[in-house]
Sequence to fold (168 residues):
Amino acid sequence: MKKIAVIALLAFALFASQEAFYEDDITPKEAFEMQKKGAVIIDVRSAAEYLYAGHPKGAVNIPIFEFNYSPKNIDIRIKASKMEQRGKKADLHKLYDITPIENGKFLEDVKKLYSKLKPKEIVVICRSGARSEYAANILAKNGFKNVYNVEDGYIFGWKRDNLPSVTE
Fold:
């Protein structure tokens, strides 16, 4: 999970300098109020994050990225296992090479969602706000209006504010 955070931070660094084309950044509480009035919340995290870390109740999962996890050499993983057995902390994030892959169907899926639900507003959320900012800009650049980004995301915002969530 730490490696995903690092990747998210790198993505944020890449996209933070880009101009915001979406409507605005909003708080999780504002997003929840908008959802109660008919806005759709799109959770752009990976399927694994959506399923196992929980998600805003009623959110639709359309990942902006998926991640390819490639295990590194077995000797490194064995060494980490032995460290844990000795009561030492191993840096488990060094056990895998993680490659983000942009979802080529993201825009297509959002268009389908929009045609079926016809929401007045689209609220985009991720783990901490970086991927959702990127996704919100893609939507705005492709003609979607009233697109909002949830600042602080699901983990650091929505859950912190104890808003309705679904967890396994």
